[in-house]
Design goal:
The chain is of the alpha/beta class and 283 residues long. Helices cover 44% and strands 15% of the residues. The strands form two sheets. A seven-stranded parallel sheet has the order 3-2-1-4-5-6-8, sandwiched between helices. It has a two-stranded parallel sheet with strand order 7-9. InterPro entries: NAD(P)-bd_dom, NAD(P)-bd_dom_sf, NmrA-type_oxidoreductase.
Length: 283
C-alpha cells in the first residue's frame, strides 16, 4: 500500500517521512512536492504536486491508496488549494485522506481556523474515508524566536498569561506516521496538543535558566506587538496576523489538556525545556 505525503520537503513533511520509514518500506512512500529536486535527499519516490495546479494533481496520485494532506502554507489560498487536492484524490481513487488541521478548529478564534474547518467539511462531503489530525501549536513556533530574544534581552509577545499546550514538530510527525499505519482510522478526529501547558513568561524563565542570561517576558497589546514586529521587517499584514494569534492564545485557543497526543504516541510529549535546549544548542 503506497502512502503519499504532500509537502514532503517541508518542516513537518520531512519528519513524517523519516518516521514512516521506521514503520514501512521506503518504496511504499511517495513524496508529493512542488520541487522534485528538493526531495532528492528523502530517499523515496518523488512526484511533482502543486496544490494550485488542479489539472496535474490526479496523475501524480496514481497508485497511491492513502494520502496525508499537509495543509498548505499560503494563508488565504488554502481552502481552494485543499479542495483541488480532495477533488483529485476522488478522481484518482484514493481510499483514505489524512488531513493536518488545527486544534479545536470548530471553535478556535485563530484566523487560521476557517480554512481548516472548510477543508474538514470538504473531506466529509467527498465520500472518501478520512481522518483529521487537529494539530496544536508547534513549540518551535515560539522557540524560533530565541536567537532574537537573546540579542534583544527580552522575549516579546501579546499572549499575556495565556496557557499554550504546544508539542514539538517531531511529536506531531510521529503521531501522523502512527495514524497513517494503523487500522480503524475512518472518520476519526484527533485533538492533538502537548501534555504540559506554559505561558510565554514560563518560556522566558526557561530560557533564562538555560542560557544564563536574564530574559524577561515583555507583554504588549496586540496592536503594539504588531508595530514592534514591523520594525523587525515583518510585513504589515503578517505582523498583525502573528499578533492576533498571540491574542487568541491569551484567550485559551492554544490550550488543551486532553493529552490525546501522548496517548497516541505511547509516551509523554516533548517537554518545553528539551526544545529550548535543542534550540540553544543550534544557535
Amino acid at each position: 500500500m503506497k502512502i503519499g505525503i504532500t509537502g514532503a520537503t517541508g518542516q513537518l513533511g520531512r519528519l513524517v517521512v523519516d518516521k514512516l520509514k521506521e514503520r514501512i518500506e521506503s518504496t511504499d512512500i511517495v513524496a508529493l512536492v512542488r520541487n522534485v529536486e528538493k526531495a532528492a535527499d528523502l530517499g523515496i519516490e518523488a512526484r511533482p504536486f502543486d496544490y494550485s495546479r488542479p489539472q496535474e494533481l490526479s496523475l501524480a496520485l496514481n497508485g497511491i491508496e492513502k494520502l496525508l494532506l499537509i495543509s498548505g502554507n499560503e494563508i488565504g489560498q488554502r481552502e481552494s488549494q485543499h479542495a483541488n487536492v480532495i477533488a483529485a484524490a476522488k478522481e484518482s481513487g484514493i481510499k483514505h485522506i489524512f488531513y493536518t488541521s488545527l486544534l479545536h478548529a470548530d471553535r478556535s478564534k485563530l484566523s487560521l481556523a476557517p480554512e481548516h474547518l472548510a477543508t474538514e467539511e470538504a473531506l466529509k462531503k467527498s465520500g472518501i474515508s478520512y481522518t483529521i489530525l487537529r494539530n496544536g501549536w508547534y513549540t518551535e513556533n515560539y522557540t524560533g524566536s530565541i536567537s532574537g530574544s537573546l540579542a534583544a534581552g527580552a522575549f516579546i509577545g501579546s499572549a499575556g498569561d495565556g496557557r499554550i499546550s504546544s508539542a514539538s514538530r517531531l511529536d506531531f510527525a510521529e503521531a501522523a506516521a502512527i495514524v497513517l499505519t494503523s487500522e480503524n482510522q475512518e472518520g476519526r478526529t484527533y485533538e492533538l496538543a502537548g501534555d504540559h501547558a506554559y505561558t510565554l513568561s514560563d518560556l522566558a524563565a526557561e530560557l533564562t535558566a538555560q542560557s544564563g542570561k536574564e530574559i524577561p517576558y515583555k507583554n504588549f497589546s496586540e496592536n503594539d506587538y504588531a508595530e514592534v514586529l514591523k520594525t523587525f521587517g515583518v510585513p504589515n499584514a503578517f505582523a498583525h496576523t502573528i499578533a492576533s494569534w498571540d491574542a487568541c492564545a491569551e484567550k485559551g485557543d492554544l490550550f488543551d489538556q486532553g493529552k490525546e497526543l501522548s496517548r497516541l504516541l505511547g509516551r509523554p510529549t516533548t517537554p518545553l525545556a528539551e526544545t529550548v535546549k535543542e534550540t540553544l544548542a543550534s544557535i
